[in-house]
Specification:
single chain; mainly alpha; Endonuclease Iii, domain 2; Endonuclease III, domain 1; about 55% helix; about 0% strand; binds iron/sulfur cluster
Amino acid sequence: MAKIPFPLRKVTKDVARKELEVLERTYPHAVTALNYGNTYELLIAVILSAQCTDARVNMTTSALFKKYPAPEKLAKANQEDVERIIKSCGFFRMKARNIINAARELVEKHGGQVPSDRQELEALAGVGRKTANVVMSVAFQEAAIAVDTHVFRVSHRLGLTLGKTPREVENDLEAIVPREKWRHTSHWLILHGRAICKAPTPLCPQCPVNHLCPTPKIIAKSLGVRSRPDAAAAATRRPARSPSTKKKA
Ligand code: SF4
């Protein structure tokens, strides 16, 4: 089916809060899908997860962390060896360079510890705002909302934001969600995006929040159908030939 357009208007704050309350109830124990044993491993796994699935990252980090169990070891690693281990993650040369450099910076500037401060995190090689937010919220229980591709897409479909950039989406979510729940918010949206509100085809008939979400109406309009259930069913009907399931890099 054609790409589903995002709503042109945000839902009211009241509806937005109700939508997120449903997601919170649906995914009460949501946590990151990345495997890690300590904050150093979490940081490296999140850097590797750019443009890659968490499942794929988990397949490579078991070998990586076995060979390089601490920043001191990774800081001295041979780049080609690291590239070989993480090759299936995509952008492996850049990622290998980044994680080795990040490990060196941890050793040289932070005594081998991962800092909890946003500025210090974002100063590390390969660490942008999203990665910093994941580390802050997961490892240090700080109030931060990480906006990845799932959070961006699901937030738009739910009418929580019209933001054109991850930072704008983050700001809109912060205005809706009570601060003490910021660190859980991305997990609700990521799990919902993986399980139900998939790209490119959301499973609206199965969605616990479809009575509040504006997107089924948009689908109905674009298909010229009247009822929301009909529209949702049409939107989720499989085409005669399945489109290729191209994996993210
Ligand atoms: S109703 Fe459809 S578009 Fe809206 S959140 Fe659920 S699956 Fe996504």
